[in-house]
Amino acid sequence: MNVPRRILALIAAVTLASVPATAVADASAVPGTMAAMGDSITRGFNACGFYLDCPSRSWSTGSNAAVNSHYLRLLADNPSLTVHNDGRSGAKVADMAGQAQQAVSQGADYVTILIGANDACASSEAGMTSVADFEARFRTAMQTLTTGLPDAGILVSSIPDIKRLWEVGKDSSSARTAWSTLGICQSMLVRPRSTDQADVDRRDRVRGRVADFNAVLARVCAEQITCRYDGGAVFGHPFTLSQLSRWDYFHPNASGQQLLAEITYTAGAVL
């Protein structure tokens, strides 16, 4: 089976760190346009100011040198690289079809996707997106991308482990106050210090839903030769409280965004 030229170029680009400079193709082979699809994480929400989108600190498209986003890594090989952040704070998988259409209209050669946290982080466990609906909507978005951008490289990140969020923040009074006051991810974070069996079971079920969503992302991505999944790298990483915004103890701060960039970039290079 022939691999599209742009995918070969993307693989060459993301493995740059381990390839001698003399072996790297010229800049014309590197993606010329990239687009990011996702939610508030991709928008860099709360990474530079109180309740603000901070796309300059996005793990995918950010321009901040400390984050060292996918965009900056690729820009080093193609200074004319165009970038679009099509993410939207609050987005769920239901919004991916529209974002995919945007990426198609932009003629993206490389697309990153990080979606699903808001589908599990509902006001209650009952409000989570069903696995069947998640799969149907993600599949529709992928079909839009692969039909409209048949040669584009697509990198799909796994959803972070939101139970890990509870684990690192439950003993912090500041985190508990933020979660309660702001009503953050109550499906997982309500009654954070409770050891009642009902709460223990609820947290496990919510984590299980995230794992099911990630299985969908992996399965649908694997159906397309142009798509690469991170292998669960983001979900499996033991992030710390210091990598979360001190305004909500939910979104990644600049350090967390840098970590996301590194994990996803490395995972994309070795798969």
What are the secondary-structure elements, in order, as H or E? HEHEHEHHEHHHHEHH
Beta-strand residue fraction: 5-15%
- Envelope shape: globular
Please compute the radius of gyration using only Cα atoms: 18 Å
Could you characterize the architecture of this molecule?
With 271 residues, this protein is an alpha/beta fold. Helices cover 43% and strands 8% of the residues. The protein is built from 11 helices and 5 strands. It has a 5-stranded parallel β-sheet, sandwiched between helices. Strand 1 (33-38), helix 2 (70-75) and strand 2 form a beta-alpha-beta unit. The chain is globular and about 55 Å long.
Topology of this protein?
Layout: H1 5-14, E1 33-38, H2 70-75, E2 82-85, H3 96-105, E3 110-114, H4 117-120, H5 131-148, E4 153-156, H6 162-169, H7 173-181, H8 186-189, H9 197-222, E5 227-229, H10 233-236, H11 254-270
Parallel strand pairs: 1-2, 1-3, 3-4, 4-5
Helix pairs in contact: 3-5, 5-9
Keywords:
single chain; 271 residues; alpha/beta; 5-stranded parallel β-sheet; 11 helices; 5 strands; 43% helix; disordered N terminus
In brief:
With 271 residues, the protein is an alpha/beta fold. Helix content is 43%, strand content 8%.
